[in-house]
Write a structure and sequence with these properties.
The complex is a heterodimer of chains A (578) and B (414). Chain A has 578 residues and is α/β, with parallel strands linked by helices. Chain A has four domains: 3-90, Alpha-Beta Plaits (2-Layer Sandwich), CATH 3.30.70.60; 98-170 and 548-578, Rossmann fold; 172-316, Rossmann fold; 333-509, 3-Layer(aba) Sandwich (Rossmann fold). The model of chain A has no long low-confidence stretch (mean pLDDT 90). Chain B is of the alpha+beta class and 414 residues long. Chain B has 13 helices and 15 strands. In chain B, helix 6 (169-177) crosses helix 7, helix 7 (188-205) runs antiparallel to helix 8 and helix 12 crosses helix 13. The longest helix of chain B is centred in the middle third of the chain and has 25 residues, at 140-164. The chains are: A alpha/beta (578), B alpha+beta (414). Chain A binds chain B through residues 11, 99-100, 102-104, 107, 557, 559-561, 566-567, 569-570, 572-578, and chain B through 1-6, 246, 327, 330-331, 334-335, 337-338, 364, 367-371, 402, 405-406, 408-409, 412-414.
């Protein structure tokens, strides 16, 4: 008849990984049927009862009490196993060549003053406290622990930003610094590629592929998966990007992320455009609408990102200076596009591409229903109007044949003081109006004059679709439009991207460059030879030892060893005194 | 808002600035504040006759026999149980006594003066090893030795100290830490330094050469000669940090064989106590743990001042008491840095690159890290009159510190 024996220990704190190890070791003794080593929380007790390990003693255990429950074939075996608990707990598996394990981060920093990094992998509810302590000691933190609240994450990252320190995490598995890996990481050779990742395995994949392609990295900085959420606002990501931007050894930057908040992704891209070096981007689930936008190179996947980065190192692109978009010609109120299309597909493509430049484009025939204009006859903000849609063609010829409606709309839009850009498509060929430019160009010219009279500059851009063998003659059309002052190109994409750049620049023009938030990370400090203080899982210290990096393992315990009452009194005393 | 950090810095600074000097010897009743004819001082926090441990009872009996207040042990016991004798902790009377720590009115005590702050503290003379009053022994030979100390050793030492203008105790502690002492359980070097400084003077001031011989032999042969002056010296250091508003530094740790007690600077005169622990010890042949009295003595004033167990890295030889390796001694000291406020400016440890000893136990750190002070100590037999049975290490009970933290929060409305 199997028996259950229980031992309850009060006031002890043992790392959960160690508890699991203890459980496994106890299970290995002869005649032991089942073992549960848990802290006495309700959920843990429930777990035990599922495997039939339950007793009044277990049920009475409190969350800060350690429960060792053993089901054995006989009492003697159970007692034997219990008698081994202390030995098993004392056994050190990690073969760290460290004579003394400091009990606190503070002591560890004295023992290894050169350590600029602290890995934190303690239980989630204590992780924020340890991280804060590390920040106050002036250390960057690799916060491996999960179950840190997003409120704590935001608070920690904001504080870190003030101090010019990185909080990589929470729930950040990977970081690679100075040729060494912290926590889960690969052995990647040093090289000129810097990676920022809100994606642990993503970082490992990209870094490994770079290594396989004979590339190497300066930094692989994980930020934790929530960093690009709207709440956290990419605090660490932007700081890390700034580090790579300033780091002279980093020639190419790679940014990767699990699906980010679209708004935050735009913020990141905005910063990336100012990096002054090539930046490869792979944000999973974010549509790639172009392969290159200035210094930004969009990858279709992780592997593509690695390849692109390696290629860009080998064949550095000529980095053009900022394009002169003539922004000064516009009034401060001017910021919107009005696209007056005759072709449905061209209108759709314009919407699709512009999504990469501006937050929202309204349309009467939107790709996305939520962007549908309230009224096709009245533009709002950025609007793309397909004049070939039914509401415009009832009792009227298609706009490819009849220019009247478009001309009226051109003049109307030009009077809107908020409109900066007018875009038209001119589709020629058989079936179309015999000379559309002859009617549209004067209207565009008039629109520009009207705007000018009102003190504005109206940018007019046209895509002309057709060939030199078409009856209307392509060149002839282009010449007329250019004479009217339009920017003309046969490629819809080229024209739309040009528009996109203008719109983006106009939007950003109005944002006064925010004062430098927080303090920049000290590049000299972060580039010193790696030395690490490890608080939590000993295996991370072993990894560092294997890699030959200086480390200190801290024999960490939660405040008051998890005695909540004493911990809260200590906290009150700390809060209430200087 | 209280500024704990500032208060603690002030307290610890006073610990370290204190410069105790042994100036003379005097009858306890003439110099110890508050001591009266029918009072006996003892080690540790307050305790009643009923709860008193064996060795302390034995020492009380011996003290009454020595004082001539009782003719035999039975009479002494009756008197002690009668309520006519007041018991008071040495620590509440600016004194410090090893093991049972019994100081009776007519005993000669060292007068140790902290010349920085003008604080005087007192301790009796060390009787050496073997059957001694401080271990609760009160046989005739014990009393005879006490009488010899009172009539011959004490007066000669008094004359010598006065003639030489005192002995700087802080200086001896500093030197002895560089000679393998911890300042508590191992006083070999300090005792030699003390004796050697005094010997030439004794040769001059002793009433004859036989007396000089006897006194120098008594002092020189006892490796614990310096324990008592060091304890009183440490008491003058920590007393300099008493009663500082807002400080969380421990100024007294003491045990009476029944309870372990502490006092905290910012909490006035209140004792915080818990059951005294059993010492993890190496026992002399023929004795075992079940013979041991619970932890006893005021000698933990040394750890309170930043030496003793806290300076164990300086005294690797002591690890034989715990069957460890020298590394354990170093690690004990390193652990104590985790719960102390400062590193001593005067007391340094060669093996730690002359780092100052961990000084100023902070109750907040003790409770936060759940590390209590480590103490090196001797172990008395639990029965009166048997004496020392071993030596070893012990950790102070956490409860004293947790109670003190709770009281601190209450007192300061936190």
């Amino acid at each position: 008849m199997a028996i259950i024996k229980t031992e309850i220990r009060r006031g002890v704190y043992i790392d959960s990984a160690k508890l699991m190890k203890l459980q496994r070791s106890l299970d290995d003794f002869a005649s032991i049927l089942d073992v549960g080593v848990i802290m006495g929380t309700d959920s843990n007790k429930e777990l035990l009862s599922h495997i039939g390990l339950t007793s009044p003693e277990i049920m009475a255990a409190k969350p800060d009490e350690l429960v060792i429950a053993i089901k054995a074939a006989d009492e003697k075996s159970a007692d034997f196993a219990l008698s081994k608990v202390d030995d098993l707990l004392a056994a050190r598996t990690a073969s760290l060549d460290q004579d003394y394990l400091p009990r606190s981060l503070e002591t560890a920093t004295k023992m290894l003053p050169g350590a600029e990094w602290v890995i934190v992998s303690v239980a989630g509810r204590y992780a924020a406290g340890v991280t804060r302590e590390a920040l106050h000691l002036g250390k960057h933190v690799h916060l491996f622990s999960d179950n840190v609240t997003v409120e704590d994450e935001i608070e920690l990252k904001k504080e870190a930003r003030e101090l010019g320190l990185l909080v990589m995490g929470p729930d950040c598995g990977t970081a690679m610094v100075d040729g060494f890996g912290l926590a889960f990481a690969n052995k990647i050779r040093k090289g000129p590629i810097g990676i920022v990742a809100a994606a642990g395995t993503g970082l490992q994949q990209v870094a490994s592929r770079i290594h396989q392609l004979n590339g190497g990295i300066t930094f692989g900085i994980g930020t934790g998966g929530k960093d690009l959420s709207e709440k956290v606002g990419a605090i660490t990501f932007l700081m890390a990007l700034d580090v790579l931007k300033r780091d002279p050894d980093t020639k190419v930057i790679v940014l990767i992320s699990k699906p980010p908040s679209p708004k935050v992704a735009e913020e990141v891209l905005k910063a990336a455009r100012k990096a002054g070096k090539p930046v490869v981007i792979n944000f999973i689930a974010r549509a790639v609408t172009t392969l290159q936008d200035g210094n930004l190179f969009f990858a279709t996947g992780l592997d593509d990102a690695a390849r692109l980065a390696v290629d860009l190192v080998k064949n550095p692109p000529v980095m053009k200076g900022d394009e002169d978009l003539g922004l000064e010609k516009f009034t401060p109120q001017q910021k919107y596009l009005r696209g007056l299309f005759s072709g449905g597909t061209l209108a759709y493509e314009a919407q699709h591409i512009l999504a990469g430049y501006v937050p929202r484009v309204w349309a009467n025939a939107p790709i996305n229903k939520e962007n549908k204009m309230a009224n096709s006859f009245e533009s709002q903000e950025h609007s793309i109007i397909d004049l070939g849609e039914d509401e415009f063609t009832v009792g009227r010829l298609h706009p490819m044949m009849d220019n009247d409606l478009r001309i009226r709309r051109i003049l109307e839009e030009a009077n809107d003081p908020e409109v900066a850009v007018l875009m038209l498509d001119i589709v020629i060929g058989y079936g179309s109006h015999p000379d559309p430019a002859s009617e549209l160009a004067p209207a565009l010219a008039e629109a520009k004059v009207n705007a000018k009279k009102a003190g504005r500059h109206l940018e007019v851009v046209c895509v002309v679709t057709g060939t030199d063998e078409d009856p209307q003659n392509f060149e002839n059309q282009v010449t007329q439009l250019k004479k009217a002052g339009a920017f003309v190109d046969p490629s819809n994409e080229v024209v739309v991207r040009y528009v996109g750049r203008i719109l983006r620049a106009l939007a950003e023009r109005n944002i006064v460059e925010a004062d430098q938030i927080g303090k920049p990370v000290d590049l000299d400090q972060i580039k010193r030879p790696l030395a690490v203080i490890n608080v939590g899982l000993e295996s991370f210290s072993e990894n560092l030892k294997d890699q030959g990096a200086p480390y200190i393992q801290v024999d960490w315990k939660p405040p008051a060893s998890g005695n909540e009452k004493m911990a809260s009194i200590l906290n009150r005393i700390k809060q209430g005194s200087k | 808002m209280i500024d704990i950090n500032k208060a603690n810095a002030y307290v610890v600074e006073r610990f370290m600035e204190a410069r105790p000097v042994a100036t003379t010897m005097a009858k306890a009743i003439e110099v110890v504040p508050g001591l009266h004819e029918n009072m006996l001082l003892h080690a540790g926090p307050p305790v009643t006759w009923e709860r008193m441990s064996g060795p302390m009872r034995g020492a009380m009996i011996g003290a009454l026999l020595f004082e001539g207040k009782a003719k035999n042990p039975e009479e002494a016991e009756k008197l002690l149980a009668s309520g006519k004798i007041d018991f008071a902790p040495c620590n509440d009377h600016m004194a410090s006594g090893p093991m049972a720590g019994v100081i009776s009115p007519s005993q000669l005590v060292y007068v140790i003066e902290n010349q920085t702050h003008g604080i005087k503290c007192f301790s009796n003379m060390n009787e050496g090893r073997g059957n001694v009053l401080r271990m609760g022994a009160y046989k005739e030979e014990v009393l005879n030795k006490l009488r010899l100390m009172e009539s011959v050793v004490g007066p000669t030492v008094k004359s010598a100290l006065e003639a030489m203008g005192g002995i700087d105790i802080r200086m001896i502690i500093s030197k002895s830490l560089h000679m393998g002492d911890d300042g508590h359980n191992r006083e070999d070097a300090a005792s030699i330094l003390w004796s050697i400084q005094m010997a030439p003077i004794i040769a001059k001031v002793a009433k004859d050469t036989q007396t000089a011989h006897d006194v120098i032999k008594f002092l020189g042969e006892n490796p614990l000669t310096m324990l008592n002056p060091i304890m009183a010296g440490c008491k003058t250091m920590t007393a300099a940090g008493d009663n500082v508003e807002g400080s969380t530094i421990v100024t007294v740790m003491a045990r009476n064989g029944t309870d372990f007690g502490i006092k905290v600077s910012g909490l006035g005169n209140q004792w915080f106590t818990a059951q005294a622990p059993i010492v993890k010890a190496l026992y002399f042949p023929g004795f075992k743990e079940s013979d041991a009295c619970r932890d006893i003595g005021d000698s933990t004033i040394t750890e309170t001042a930043g030496i003793g167990g806290f300076a164990m890295a300086a005294a690797p030889a002591l690890v034989t008491f715990i069957g460890g390796v020298p590394r354990d001694a170093t690690n004990t000291t390193l652990d104590m840095y985790e719960i102390t406020f400062a590193e001593h400016k005067q007391f340094t440890i060669p093996a730690l690159d002359f780092r100052g000893t961990p000084t100023g136990i902070d109750i907040l750190k003790v409770v936060e890290k759940q590390i209590t002070p480590r103490v090196n100590t001797g172990v008395a037999h639990k029965d009166p009159g048997v004496g020392q049975v071993g030596g070893g290490v012990v950790s102070a009970p956490m409860k004293c510190f947790e109670d003190a933290v709770t009281a601190f929060a209450e007192k300061y409305g936190l």
